[in-house]
């Protein structure tokens, strides 16, 4: 491994239509008992969703700067099934379940090995610069549909 490899941030990627994002539980993620604080699962999922968009070739920053719009979480339904603990390696699995004109529904699971720790469905709405729902860019809709059909992306 070269120093250049060590200087590059970790990136997740797609296996078929599933985005995989690995992470480690650090002290800052836990409560005094060494168990991941419940709200941090949402942070893990947010990081994985952002990485999923990057891996799919969707440039949110460019869209925002061009005045096209941005994604915002409109709804989250989450079930906490098992606790994660300090030092554990986790995997966030993300799949696109449904694509609508102005939103996308993403199923996310935080895993420890083959155990599901948290299971969520997240609706991300595409908003215009005035924070009103807006149709997603057509190429993005096509990308999400390809992902939801299980097509492998290597962007």
Question: What does the model show?
Answer:
The protein has 155 residues and is of the alpha+beta class. It has one domain (12-148): Hotdog Thioesterase (Thiol Ester Dehydrase, Chain A), CATH 3.10.129. The chain is 25% helix and 35% strand. The chain has helices at 3-6, 38-55, 60-65, 138-148, and strands spanning 13-15, 18-24, 70-80, 89-99, 103-112, 115-127. The chain has a six-stranded antiparallel sheet. The longest helix has 18 residues, at 38-55. The protein is globular, with a radius of gyration of 16 Å. The two termini are 23 Å apart. The model has no long low-confidence stretch (mean pLDDT 94).
Which helices and strands occur, and which strands form pairs?
Layout: H1 3-6, E1 13-15, E2 18-24, H2 38-55, H3 60-65, E3 70-80, E4 89-99, E5 103-112, E6 115-127, H4 138-148
What multimeric state do the chains show?
Answer: single chain
- How would you characterize the largest beta sheet? 6 strands, antiparallel
Question: CATH homologous superfamily?
Answer: Hotdog Thioesterase
Number of domains: 1
CATH architecture verdict: Roll
Q: What is the CATH topology?
A: Thiol Ester Dehydrase, Chain A
Integer average pLDDT = 94
Helix content: 25-40%
Number of helices: 4
Report how far apart the termini are. 23 Å
Would you report the number of β strands?
A: 6
- General form: globular
Stretches where pLDDT is under 50 for at least 5 consecutive residues are none
Q: Which CATH C-level class is it?
A: Alpha Beta
- Strand order, largest beta sheet: 1-2-4-5-6-3
Strand content: 35-45%
* Radius of gyration from the alpha-carbon trace, in angstroms: 16 Å
Please write the string of helix (H) and strand (E) elements: HEEHHEEEEH
- Give the class from helix and strand content and strand pairing: alpha+beta
């Amino acid at each position: 491994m070269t120093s250049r490899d060590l200087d590059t941030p970790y990136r997740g990627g797609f296996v078929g239509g599933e985005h995989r994002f690995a992470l480690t539980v650090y002290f800052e993620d836990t409560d005094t008992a060494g168990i991941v604080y419940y709200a941090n699962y949402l942070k893990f999922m947010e990081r994985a969703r952002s990485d999923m968009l990057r891996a799919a070739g969707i440039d949110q920053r460019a869209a925002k700067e061009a005045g096209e719009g941005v994604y915002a979480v409109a709804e989250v339904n989450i079930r906490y099934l098992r606790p994660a603990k300090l030092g554990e390696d986790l995997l966030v699995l993300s799949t696109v379940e449904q694509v609508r004109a102005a939103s996308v529904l993403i199923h996310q699971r935080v895993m420890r090995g083959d155990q599901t720790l948290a299971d969520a469905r997240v609706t991300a709405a595409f908003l215009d610069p005035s924070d009103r729902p807006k149709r997603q860019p057509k190429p993005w809709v096509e990308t999400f549909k390809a992902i939801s059909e299980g097509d492998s992306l290597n962007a």
